[in-house]
Each structure stands twice: as C-alpha cells, then as structure tokens.
Automatic annotation (TrEMBL), chains A, B:
Keyword set, alphabetical order: DNA-binding, Transcription, Transcription regulation
A family per Pfam: TetR_C_14
DNA-binding region(s), chain positions: 37-56
Molecular-function GO term, any one: transcription cis-regulatory region binding
Ranges in a coiled coil: none
Cleaved signal peptide residues: none
Protein name as it appears in the record: Transcriptional regulator, TetR family
Domain annotation HTH tetR-type: ranges: 13-74
InterPro entries: DNA-bd_HTH_TetR-type_CS, Homeodomain-like_sf, HTH-type_TetR-like_transc_reg, HTH_TetR, MftR_C
TM regions (residue ranges): none
Organism field: Glycomyces sambucus
Length: 205, 205
DNA sequence: GCCAAACTTGCGTGATCTGCAAAATTTCAT
DNA sequence: ATGAAATTTTGCAGATCACGCAAGTTTGGC
C-alpha cells in the first residue's frame, strides 16, 4: 500500500507539513517571507536547519508546498480525464475537483495569496511551478488534440487553461461573493468557450 | 533630452549592455547559467563584482536584460494603442511592432531560449518578469474593457494575451519555417478570436 | 534483540546579495 | 583650465542560502 505504509512515511509527511505550516505561520507573523530565515522555520518545526533543506530547497518552496501538491494531483486527474473528455472540459472539471475551498482553510489561503503577491521571490517560485506544470501537461494536451507538442495550438490552449485555473481561483478567493468556487471556475472556463477576445463580459464580473 | 544627455548616461548604458552580453556569452560557453558566477561575468565585462550587483540583482536578471527592456517598451506602446484600438488588437499589433526578429540576433535568441528552458532559475526569473508585466498591464486592460481590475474578465484576457505573445514568439523562434514572425504572431492571436477551446487548428501548425 | 536501511544532524564550503564608506571619475560653473 | 559638487566604482564585512559529506540516530524486518 502506498497508504500509511509505515511509521517512517508518516513521520516524513508530518515533518514536511510541519515545516510548511511553520513557514506560513512565521511569514504571516513577520509580514513577509523575506524577513523569515530557513533557520527560524526549522526551529519552529523542531528540526535542524540542515533537515529543513532536506525537505525543501528554499523557504519559498516550503510556503508553496500545498500548492505544489495540489497541482501534482491535478495533473494525475487530468491525465485520466483526458482519456474520455475533450481537454478543455477535462481541465475545467479537474480544476473544480481539486476542491480548494474544502481542502484548505480559506483564511490561510488568503494570507498565503497576499504574501505571494507582495513578495518577488514568492511570485517567481509560484510562476516557476506553473511553468513546471506547463511542461508536464503539454504532452497530454498535444495528444488530446491530435497535435504536436511543438505546435502553437496546444501551447495556447494549455496556457489559457492554466491562466483560467489561476485567475478564477484567485478571483474567488479575493471575493467569494454569492458564488461557490465551482461556479466561479465554470464561469471562467466558459468565457473562453464564447471567445475571450470578442465580447465584454455580459453584466460585470 | 533623454537621449545621449551625457557621457555618464552612455557609459552606464554601455556597461549594462556589456554585463548582459558577458552573461550570455559565458552561459553559452559553460552550457548553463548555473555554472557561471557573478564574479566571472563582472570580470568578463571589466568591472568589479560589486559593480555588477549595482546594475543587476542577479545573473539571471542580467541574462534577461533585453527581454525586460523589450517588455518595458511594449507596455508603453500598448498604453498608446489602447487609446484608439480594441485591447486585443492593440496587444497583437504592439507585439508585432516589437520586431524581435529585426532587433536581435536570431542565433543569440535561440541560445538564450535554450538556456532559459533548461534552467529552473531562469524560468523563474522570466516568468517573474511576466507577472510583473501582468501587474503593470492589468489597469490598461481593465480601463480598455470597461471593467474593474479585480474582475475576472480582464485577467483572463490579459493572461491570454501574454500567453499568446510568449508562445508565438517562442514557436517562431524554434522553427521560422516559411513564415515571418509577424505572421506567426497574427496567427496566434487569431486563434483566440475564433475561440481557442472549440476547433482543433485547421491544418496542423 | 540485531542489523541494514533510512533519516537527522553538524560542519564546511562556495555563492548570492546588500549596506557602508572611501577612492575615483565626471560634470559644471567660473 | 581648475576646483567643488555630484555621481559612480570599488573593497570589505556580514547575513543568508543551498548543498556535499560523514558521522550519529532511528526505524523496520527477521
């Protein structure tokens, strides 16, 4: 079983989560990841500085751990869905099925979002992770649309999908309003189906 | 005059360019920016290490100097065009008018492209610069479409435009084929006008 | 209980990036 | 041309980062 195979696995996972949480907690407390050191994060989680770097290459990566995990699962889900669905629908449904809103604490995510958007190093780390996702997903998209990964079309389609994923989630997070996250995602993906360039959006948002 | 106002200005610009070129040359020679140090770049350009860091915060930024300059000019151009054109057309035309193909050496750009795509730190730096561009352009897009910068629509539109800009240029660079860069850009922007999600591209690429 | 495998830790190293103040250079007014 | 003012270059020191290495510690299977 890949599940709780042993004490060892569980301990490692716990340490990794503890480090990530410690990073977030300290970054919030000090109002910015730049004023937090790897040493502090390690201390907060009760391990040595060296061990911190065994788990994460940087404090930025530690803070974005959940995000990275989630996109990893998204990718696996997408691979499955692409076998039976048009790729655009697969992307939309996979994005909805991540259930960001249920899986994570909304306030934590808001804090994280704010930290990211006010830190160049976190912006770089996050967009770097998106590019990684792009590189991993391009084969799926190319195969699904019957094109080559070197063609223009799959790149544009995938780029649009990733932008939609990121924007809709961020938008919903900044103002949940009346809608559920799933509705916001659905609306965002629909905007591309009607042609993003032509009409201004019907009412307002 | 902002033009050649004095010896001082020109010397600074020359130093900056020399540092950027030195970074590219060394990165090509050593097959990767990671095996080049800031110290080496400074030496190659004939200044001290400290001076290098007066001009660029990192070797990655030095290597991407041209790119950063170009997007800066694009932004100014876009601001102008948005006054008289629909934003999507403004983006397309501004992208074409950057004249990447005339302004820079094709082989240099290919090398740079390859260096970027095989270096995590360069990918992060570049995508970070794109996010910076996003932040600076979102107001223009929102104003131009009569929406708020917090709405979903301008973010998706801008994201699509940036993806198109990046993808079309990269795609043309990797295989100039029969087309000009302007034609490749035009084709890419047109794909969104027809609705990127629905039809596979007509023939192949 | 014991051993091999895996994990943690401390140490050392090379590199990054920044602040600060002294030295060198350029500009400008006279 | 000359000297004062402004600006740039430079060296140095310091904080941090990120990683290799080797010794110590813990875990899991038998």
């Amino acid at each position: 079983m890949a599940e709780s195979t042993g004490l060892r696995e569980r301990k490692k996972a716990a340490t990794k989560a503890a480090l990530s949480e410690a990073a977030l907690r300290l970054a919030i407390a000090k109002e910015g990841i730049e004023s937090v050191t790897a040493e502090e994060i390690a201390a907060e989680a009760g391990v040595s500085t060296r061990t911190f770097h065994n788990y994460f290459p940087s404090k930025e990566a530690a803070l974005l751990y959940d995000f990275h995990e989630t996109t990893g699962r998204l990718l696996a889900d997408l691979r499955e869905r692409a076998r039976t669905q048009p790729i655009w629908d697969a992307f939309r449904d996979a994005t909805i099925d991540m259930h960001f809103d249920e899986k994570f604490d909304i306030d934590d995510m808001r804090c994280r979002e704010q930290l990211i958007h006010s830190s160049p190093s976190l912006i770089k780390e996050q967009s770097g992770q998106f590019m990684e996702l792009f590189a991993e997903a391009i084969d799926i998209v190319a195969a699904s649309t019957g094109t080559s990964k070197d063609d223009l079309y799959p790149r544009l389609l995938l780029g649009a999908a990733l932008v939609t994923m990121k924007s809709s989630t961020e938008h919903w997070l900044s103002d949940p309003g009346e809608r559920t996250l799933a509705e916001a995602i659905t609306e965002a993906f629909a905007l591309f189906e009607r042609g993003i360039t032509q009409p201004p959006p019907a009412p307002a948002t």
